[in-house]
Amino acid sequence: MKYLLITAIGALVVYLAYRTYRYLNLADSLDKKIENGATILDVRTAGEYATGHIDGSINISLGEIRERYTELDPSKTYITTCSHGLRSVKAVNLLKERGFKNVYNGGAWSDLEKIVKK
Hints:
Layout: H1 2-35, E1 39-42, H2 46-50, E2 58-59, H3 62-68, E3 78-82, H4 86-97, E4 103-108, H5 109-117
Parallel strand pairs: 1-2, 1-3, 3-4
């Protein structure tokens, strides 16, 4: 029982450190891209998007992006976002494979929203 508790506390500390690191790193670079007109691309499902999203963001789910990427302008800057940051990484890779040069992972939408509102 003691080892389980120590492991759980250790995992919580690592998780909190990771979230803090991600938030600080996102704030350093993405805020300028947003100020310069980057478009936020939310790759969550339509249902997830309906429960809350960043105002002005575009919603194309990761499952649809392979077909719908043609709706996007490859010359523009996009910041992808999702619930935790994993799908947004995949979306960045997919778009870069299709010739998009200015695509960045914005991580979790709730973290990115804090940057947008500043």
